[in-house]
Write a structure and sequence with these properties.
alpha+beta, Four Helix Bundle (Hemerythrin (Met), subunit A), Thiol Ester Dehydrase, Chain A, 2 domains
Length: 304
């Protein structure tokens, strides 16, 4: 599902929120990677830095633009009063509900962390993103003229979105350090399916393709920062492909450098992939820094 350029910052926020929704939903279970208190802290940090602003942009910029447009159409017709469609009204109702849950969590943190509250917040956040990506954003894209959408493009970029864009830009060589990240968006095409690559019988995104995309993003992150004559090769990966993705959907892959070992030669990455609805895969990946000339000579000896 290709999102209009004007709405991509909001969809990018959704990808970040889906990670939070999954952590909230898993809180207190064997699958959780964080303690309930850490999960609550991570969400409250996300909410303060990105979530509240995301809601504001939708309520004060995006939805008013949509309302003005449908009102203008109604005023030119026989019935000048025009109510908002049900999905749009549902967005506003859910904003109130999620704000209330977030406020309740903030009020009780850190003295008390309710698993029921974390799970309710995770479920509400996940379902809200699904509503917007499946119903509301397509409705807006179909309804608003291109000129109106283009006019919104610069007004829907939150400070947190701009910060993520800045962090993901390639930096100068020699600046490899834990915490830096890079991301790329792919579109699932027929040649990427399990059927096409003979790794299974479904017509959704194949695990080998997802793995290749993850490796590619990690490779780009390192390659843009290494001195001339050096590169990296993949040496280990632990991949979990946790949800299916259909042909035509966008997949956003983000790699973060988490550690540097072995005299700077071994680079450890944490990688996550999400479609427009949920987290679809995660991996721990290690790459090794090589000298290109020496590596090419080793290859040449084997090809004789």
């Amino acid at each position: 599902m290709r999102r209009h350029q004007a709405l991509m910052p909001l969809s990018d926020d959704h990808h970040q929120a889906l990670v939070q929704a999954r952590q909230l939903s898993l809180a207190g279970t064997a699958e959780a990677s964080l303690s309930p208190t850490e999960t609550a802290a991570a969400f409250l940090r996300f909410w303060t830095e990105a979530g509240e602003e995301h809601f504001r942009l939708e309520e004060e910029v995006l939805l008013p633009a949509y309302q003005r447009h449908i009102r203008s159409l109604a005023e030119s017709g026989p019935h000048p009063i025009c109510a908002l469609p049900t999905p749009v009204m549902q967005v506003l109702v859910e904003h109130v509900y999620i704000r209330g849950l977030a406020a309740e969590l903030a009020d009780s943190f850190p003295d008390r962390t309710s698993l029921d509250l974390l799970h309710a917040l995770g479920s509400a956040l996940h379902d809200h993103i699904r509503l917007e990506e499946r119903a509301v954003f397509p409705l807006i894209e179909q309804s608003l003229p291109e000129a109106v959408l283009a006019g919104l493009a610069g007004r829907l970029k939150s400070p947190s979105y701009l910060a993520r864009r800045s962090e993901s830009k390639p930096k100068d060589a020699g600046t490899l350090m834990p915490g830096i990240s890079h991301e790329r968006t792919y579109v699932v095409e027929p040649q990427h399916t399990a059927v096409a690559v003979h790794s299974g019988g479904i017509t959704g995104l194949s695990t080998p393709t997802l793995l290749a995309w993850m490796e590619s993003v990690a490779f780009e992150l390192a390659e843009d920062r290494l001195p001339p004559g050096q590169s990296t090769v993949g040496v280990a990966v632990n991949l979990q492909h946790v949800a299916p993705t259909p042909v035509g959907a966008e997949v956003r892959v983000r790699a973060t450098l988490t550690g540097i070992e072995g005299d700077g030669r071994r680079l450890n990455f944490s990688i996550e992939a999400s479609d427009h609805m949920e987290l679809i895969g995660k991996a721990e990946h290690q790459r090794f820094v090589i000298d290109r000339d020496r590596f090419d000579r080793r290859l040449a000896r084997k090809s004789r």
